[in-house]
Write a structure and sequence with these properties.
FAD/NAD(P)-binding domain, D-Amino Acid Oxidase, Chain A, domain 2, eight-stranded mixed beta sheet, alpha+beta, 2 domains
């Protein structure tokens, strides 16, 4: 088939990466009647068994991107109504078991809806046609033809594929980002935040023994100098997911391997001198566990998310540290924007196949313009929030008042995530897209 004939066929999009953002994007594009293939380098799906939470109003955004979200996840959804911060360090001499509630923020109706990432993804994948996702396809490079036309994807196993456009949803270690920004460019790679995460699942009965019924069954963040610990219920309140974040002044030895073996004593040493309930919870972690180096794209942010008909979305574009708990959900906002713009492009291309390339380039130009500022703000804000959690003032009662003033700032930052008007974003994106093509559309008869 000639290239001209191919370009008059259905719009064909390649997605690199089958994490939550990649799969939700695939579902959303298919619902826009766009042909999609997802290429995943692993043998199975990308997400590990950690929990994730939808911040307030984010559930609506996910439903907007994919109306089948309810059938794909609601059996796993659990709700937390507040964000709560507790002093995890200073102990009252008269009663060490008493912990001061420092601040809480009402998350509103439905609050934070949480589930395990892998289970959510497994259910979501069931919505897709069986041939959409191809595993064991590690991307080597992309070839763009002079004068436009299909992009060629070349995989490390020697096989190839073609698509009208490519969207990289391949996460923090994105190969697509490296292709767009250039090998050797520091913005092509994630960098160490000097924070280590220790994570484990603890049976609810054990958690209740050390935290009490209320704290165990509700989300809490225990803050203190150079560390914090967050926990919340999962698995229908039968377990809690506990994650301890610890500051690390050293460099991480190998940026290719961000997970290393650890033992519980490493965590116990980091929380030495903290409150009995924090130390008690740490004592329930497994004797052997992993430590996760927290990397992000803060040091060298991507100056742009697109090049021609190649684009980045989700962590591939703006991987943040996890301290807002909104990284994946920022990716869902990306999906909503991309699906809306791709729907506009499909209609235009059906009417005038000759503008296919420019219509797709304008989709990604508009996406970059609309999404980059907000998503890069999240990368910065997540760093800032962790700094506030770990501030040294928590160790000094004389500076406690100063330390506590941080929560109004945290509240404002949280509300900027939660109360984002995605309808305004979509209106801005749609108008910007149409304006970018006005001259071209005017030159095409019949539009």
């Amino acid at each position: 088939m000639s290239d001209t004939a191919t370009r008059e066929g259905p719009l064909d999009i390649a997605i690199v990466g089958s994490g939550i953002v990649g799969v939700v994007l695939a579902v959303g594009l298919i619902r826009q009647k766009i042909k999609v293939k997802v290429y995943e380098q692993a043998q199975g799906f990308r997400e590990i068994g950690a929990a994730w939470h939808l911040p307030p109003t984010q559930g609506n955004r996910l439903e907007q991107a994919d109306q089948s979200r309810l059938q794909a996840g609601d059996e796993q959804i659990q709700i937390n109504d507040y964000l709560r911060w507790i002093d995890g360090h200073i102990t009252r001499k008269d009663d060490p078991s008493i912990r001061k509630m420092l601040f809480k923020i009402d998350a509103g109706y439905k609050g934070f809806e949480g589930c395990r990432r892998d289970r959510f993804l497994e259910e979501l994948v069931k919505i897709l046609p069986a041939d959409v996702i191809q595993c064991r396809k590690r991307l080597d490079t992309l070839e763009e033809k002079e004068g436009g036309g299909k992009i060629r994807l070349i995989f490390c196993d020697g096989t190839t594929a073609e698509a009208d456009a490519v969207i990289g949803c391949d996460g923090i270690k994105s190969r697509v980002r490296e292709i767009i920004l250039g090998e050797g460019n520091p913005a092509s790679y994630a960098h160490y935040t000097h924070k280590i995460a220790y994570r484990g699942l603890i049976p609810m009965a054990k958690a209740i023994e050390v935290l009490g019924e209320y704290k165990a069954r509700n989300q809490h963040i225990h803050v203190g100098p150079n560390a914090h610990l967050i926990h919340y219920p999962v698995a229908n309140q039968t377990m809690i997911n506990a994650t301890a974040f610890v500051s690390d002044p050293e460099e991480w030895p190998d940026d290719k391997r961000t997970v290393a073996p650890a033992i519980r004593k490493d965590v116990e040493d980091a929380f030495e001198g903290w409150s009995p309930c924090v130390r008690g919870l740490v004592s329930q972690l497994p004797e052997k566990l992993d430590k996760w180096a927290v990397f992000d794209l803060w040091d060298y942010p991507a100056p742009f998310y697109n090049r021609g008909k190649i684009c980045l979305a989700g962590d591939a574009a703006h991987a943040s540290s996890p301290h807002h708990g909104a990284g994946a959900c920022m990716g869902i906002e990306d999906v909503l924007c991309l699906c809306t713009l791709m729907g506009e492009a499909r209609v235009l291309i059906q009417k005038a196949p000759t503008i296919r390339d420019q219509a797709l380039i304008s989709v990604f130009d508009t996406f970059n313009s609309v999404r980059r500022t907000r998503s890069q703000w999240l990368v910065n804000s997540s760093r800032r929030v962790c700094d506030l959690y770990h501030q040294p003032e928590w160790a000094d009662p004389a500076k406690w008042v100063k330390a506590e003033t941080c929560f109004e700032e945290i509240k404002d930052r949280s509300h900027k995530i939660w109360h984002f008007d995605y309808n305004v974003m979509l209106q801005e994106a749609t108008q910007g897209y149409k304006q970018s093509l006005e001259a071209l559309i005017g030159a095409v008869s019949g539009l």
